[in-house]
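INPUT
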Amino acid sequence: MELQSYRKYSQMAQGIIKPELVFKNANVFFSHTGEFRKGDVATAGGMILGVGNYEGEQEIDLEGRYLCPGFIDSHLHLESTLVTPGELIRQAAQCGTTTFIVDPHESANVSGTDGIDYILEQTEEVPANVYVMMPSCVPSTHVDDNGCTLTAGKMKAYLKHPRILGLGEVMDASAVINGSVSMHEKLNLFGERVRDGHAPFLAPGELSAYALAGISTDHECVDYEYAMEECRNGIQVLIREGSAARNLDAIVKGIVEHGTDTSGFCFCTDDKHIEEIRKSGHINYNVKRAVELGLPVEKALKMATIQAARCYGLKHLGAIAPGYQADFVVLDNLEDLNVLEVYHKGIRIQKDEKTEIKACNPQLKNTVHIHSFKESHLKLKHPMKKAHVIQMQEGQITTVDVTEEVPWKETAGEKVFAADKDYQKIAVIERHKHTGKVGVGIVKGFGIRGGAIASSVSHDSHNIIVVGDNDRDMAMAVRELICTQGGYTLVENGQIYETLPLPVMGLMSDAGYEKVNETLAKMIPKAHEMGIPRGFDPFITLSFMALPVIPEIRITPRGIYLVKEDRMIRNPFS
Amino acid sequence: MELQSYRKYSQMAQGIIKPELVFKNANVFFSHTGEFRKGDVATAGGMILGVGNYEGEQEIDLEGRYLCPGFIDSHLHLESTLVTPGELIRQAAQCGTTTFIVDPHESANVSGTDGIDYILEQTEEVPANVYVMMPSCVPSTHVDDNGCTLTAGKMKAYLKHPRILGLGEVMDASAVINGSVSMHEKLNLFGERVRDGHAPFLAPGELSAYALAGISTDHECVDYEYAMEECRNGIQVLIREGSAARNLDAIVKGIVEHGTDTSGFCFCTDDKHIEEIRKSGHINYNVKRAVELGLPVEKALKMATIQAARCYGLKHLGAIAPGYQADFVVLDNLEDLNVLEVYHKGIRIQKDEKTEIKACNPQLKNTVHIHSFKESHLKLKHPMKKAHVIQMQEGQITTVDVTEEVPWKETAGEKVFAADKDYQKIAVIERHKHTGKVGVGIVKGFGIRGGAIASSVSHDSHNIIVVGDNDRDMAMAVRELICTQGGYTLVENGQIYETLPLPVMGLMSDAGYEKVNETLAKMIPKAHEMGIPRGFDPFITLSFMALPVIPEIRITPRGIYLVKEDRMIRNPFS
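OUTPUT
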């Protein structure tokens, strides 16, 4: 702070001169002490000066309502919400999230540093604090076919960027633990910063070796016992409640039951769709749900504010205290926890203000590169033996690798896999570099009948993924997404039912969230009507089926990947 | 960490190869979760690799004893313990303190950067982690006469030193709040680091303005209510329990009574004499006392370990988890909390190992510069009106400014102040630059009869301070300390009873702590016999009487200083 400014602000803090803007009669949440107390909050220049008895040049009378520091989403991917970053931020900010720790992992997998630059540019003028973690696993693993390889060398230039906080989620645990040179170059480059983890289900010794490499957070934890193991290893647990993965109930129930010290926990959404944010909220939902489960509201609020700020070294965020940024959430009461108003740097965030969508580099709208795709690429010969099947799990993105008899039929003298109500076909088509790679597998529990569902959002390489019960509809879906340069599509009996184009890197729409929501509002119920269980979101769940770091079995352009064995098989009958 | 080393340690953490040293069958304190659990702690190269079931190349069987991270003293001055830094560290380390956040404020006041270099050099090879905060107030205030002025310019060279953590206790609150240029240059120089506070009794608005300047700790807090005010302002409270100032009971009782969130607290000693460390312990005493007062042991241990480490950004300290330094305290049980063994980087600290005293720059042993001191300089004319009197407060270093009639006598036709059982004379003689300045005042409640007590340790300028009931003995005491180049001395009826020479900057002995203790064991009881109340340590309390930042009234070489009014008066009758 300039000394001239300090002198003025010091006088305001002391009440010698009137502070610019005072929030009168607030029930202030002090996150350092975890308590509510009545007071006036003095601010100037978007900064908090003090809490006490103040009269301001301008005053906002809160009439006893509850004033909390703005909430922090400690880990999320903006791209997976389908809309442009500015729109998502504005929607989530209206729910009280004023700080976003973003991993532009999806953009980087498609467009490399151009994708990271896109996220940085698009979040420059939003009414929130957006920090970026440098994606660590691009591509995610050695079995991925993505658009770009992000090395430590390419990352170096970003070290000086004021909004680059550290290294993004390190998913390739075996590269870490086994001491891969390229992985450790990245870990060392960010040696003085936060290095985010992604460590589901590591064995105890492996988890220790992973923490030993300097990784200090994880958001992949799905149960209380494992969360505690992570905390004991010095890993901060970012409790995730997103669209696909919902871990809050399991972890918070354990915390409440055991009276656990909550200092090792924060909240995140990871991936949450915009229509869900509008419906149920953002980090305010995590807080509310945790309180419903019996967590004291003060502890939930500390997780949502100062604990996340400290975890990421953001000294000016997460508290209502002198020198902190004037980011506030106004709550009606401590039972309903409804967000009434939100302020960023002392300025109120308006509800549903029209967002101007910033144009992007045109190259980022030309990223689906598939020369010669044919329906015959989807054929799956049946050698009359058991197949590895991807068994879905309701409410989870994990899958189970089951080996079973699967249905077949004879076509033109050839025995081929035949979908039925239990088993359907799943395929991934490489879309970055015209390689022609297509992987075909079998999925159980997905349930689609009489058509196909396809997406260019498929973590983390974002190739085209498609599930269907007949090759014709599947091929039509793929062709549709080549044509729209990415998107979601639903095909029913030889007809395109609806398509949501996602032309920005094949990940995001630039048509505005209203259009996105309107389209999804038609597509999602239809997908469920076509047989996809209501226990999961059709497109989001689909998008994780190609992610080779999540147990137990995945589909990639190279074939079926058995995660535990780190083994690729050409087809499910191998 | 080198990749080669990581690969080896990773295998050890996973139990693939045997860790170098395993602490078997420990009851491990996990400071991240605040819980004890049984396990083996694997270490190598002085670093913790993991906690679980391990077999080691070497093993130490703890047979169920309690293994905690080494304790952290979050704020102390090494010089005030009277012995050389290495000796003090070794003594305190035997009590379980393995990390010391040191402010070499005393050395800097006498010898400037040479004094800081002395502390850095002397702590290079000790069995503990010693970090240094750059003294911020040298001299302490504009009314001080010390040996050196430490500007931001002189500090700059130290920013790169790996053991310089931040800016030391900022005592001159008014310089901060009023926006003094030189103070803010120092605050800005350490803008990205920890800036320690020293903020007793600031009014609410002042405290906010002080926190607004970026100050984030304070160890001067004497009661619970003020501690909470500091916490709410984002200031971490370092609960002090030293030789002179003991604030732990007051603050911890409040915490226990109110069930307060303890995340905003750490422990420190500030100033603790070596014989007291040997008798009652160091930070282990703070822990033990807090538990006696009803604080759960897990919370006390977090204050003594991870909370202090986090407060100072020491990511490798304060926990038993992978990647943390192997600094351990072994406790017998959770009731008695006796320290059985201490380890630093996996190596056991031996009890009472002979410490080799490192030689120092000879210039540092020639720092008492007084040309022409005469007994007549101590004369105090009595103008037959009321005088400002320094009223002592038992158990505190604060004083009360009382204005009273004081006794007098007539000598050679002149009315002069005459000491009696209630009132004695106190004087400070400038000793750095031959300025000849002598301040004389009146003290009540010090109680010395039939002699004088003097010291060259007098915070923060470390001029010669003397209290007595007659000028002859006072002058003799001052002359003795000029002769020994600093020390403590006690004069009784015209005879030097005993002197403890402190030739290193007039602050420390290089004769070894045994000699220091032996001498103090004679001098302190004698001082009490001579009338100094048993409620305070004669020399330590004396050493604070010249410190112009502590309320309400002080004595300096320029005269009497009224702290609240920031006003110097030439003599107590002014």
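end of record. DSSP finds 16 helices and 29 strands in chain A.
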